[in-house]
Design a protein that fits this description.
Immunoglobulin-like, nine-stranded antiparallel β-sheet, eight-stranded parallel β-sheet
Amino acid sequence: MNRVIQTVDPLSPSLALNQNIIQQRWIDHFKNVKFMKLARSLGPSYLRVGGITADEITFVMNSETRMKKSYSCSERKLSGRKKTIFSNKEKVENASIVMTEGDWKKLNEFCSSAGWKLIFDLNLLKRNGSRWNYTNAQQLIKFTENRYHVNWELGNEPNSYPHNMGTTISPEQVGEGFKQLRKLLQASPWWESSVIVGPDLNHVGSLNAAKFLSRFLKAAGHTIDGITYHQYDMNGNVAELADFLNPHILHRIRSQTQQILDVRSKYAPDKSVWLGETASAYDGGVKGVSNSFADGFTWLDKLGTVAQMGVDVVMRQSLFEGSYALIDKHFDPLPDYWLTFLYKQLVGNKVLKVTQIEINKKNDNEEKKVRIYAHCTKDVRYSKGSVVLYFINLKNTTIYLSINSLKNRGAVIDMYLLTPGEKRNITSKSIRLNGVTLKLSSTNTFPRLRPTRIDESKLKLGIKIPSFTYGFLVLSGANAYACLPMTLK
């Protein structure tokens, strides 16, 4: 653990919301005191506001009208919102949701109060023939100048437009839109620090996705600051609890992400890679599971995997709405909220190399059921040179973890063990930290995050990790060379 293998964005993990928060008026709750406290406690973060409705939205100044006009289309439920399937591509632009000045102000003021950086996804399906009609985007950008600092995307999952939106836009045409967006921002010094990320590719791992990204990067890779892709482990309509505990399913993201990294290396090697939208299961998650303790296995393992691979930012879908939300409709935090909160409190952005050796394993599959990752800690809680390990144990037996690098080092070990709020029920909607249920008080005060100190004498036998649990081990005072500032090396 003395070698840094990756350095990721300190704002990762971050959060995502669908733009239907405007249509469904969730945006009106942004000043709720409890909700604001929960949001602020996950900062600093990016907030990506996008999703399929990003390609249906129109900015209108001085208007309180929510829908631009009525339209005829078929609808089906997707990720907690209505997904629009247009009968023909001529109807696409007529199906816009209106975002008013007031909506835009509420969104930006929320991000400012929470200490978050907004990433807003512009409508790519406003077209003049084969070209992006940027008039409305230009109006929004002009209105925003000298008011708010915003980062930008353009379009949502354009490689799936034929299926999702009934139209086709080539990778080169998408690239031309990004070039135009860059020109719009270059017109004012206000946007010098603003980033553009895209193209929000989905179906990663497929040959078509690789071809689409390759062509896009050849056309416009120089115009973006980060390459974004979307990834979900499973289908929320058919997945079951067992899938959340299946190491082979958890492992899929590795090959999918490697595809993106390989294309990046060939066509845009200087660009960072962002996992711009992700959760355990698409179509809103799996009811009763994605919002439970069990989801933490997929979430924590995903964070560790992509950090090891060098993905700069991870944006979790969704802060609220859908079964995969971090916060429920009553603004009560769910297990993944507490897991994310603890991660952002403890885990720094320097990723360390870990060599994992398991003794007495029965087969190769057994090894994959125990996963361990390591980072330098954040300095706010622990001294410089400290290391945090985070782990998941998918075995149905207790394991004993031995840390060879600690021998004769004199480090102090703090354990943050997370278990279901309801004992032996991994679909519990609550979570315990070292046996204490995590919840807000009646005055919305956060609980203290009390670790359990591991006695040095127990290190010889190994640290006890119960079955179907996950958590963090902080090696305080480890004086890991890779985690020390240059002045102390």
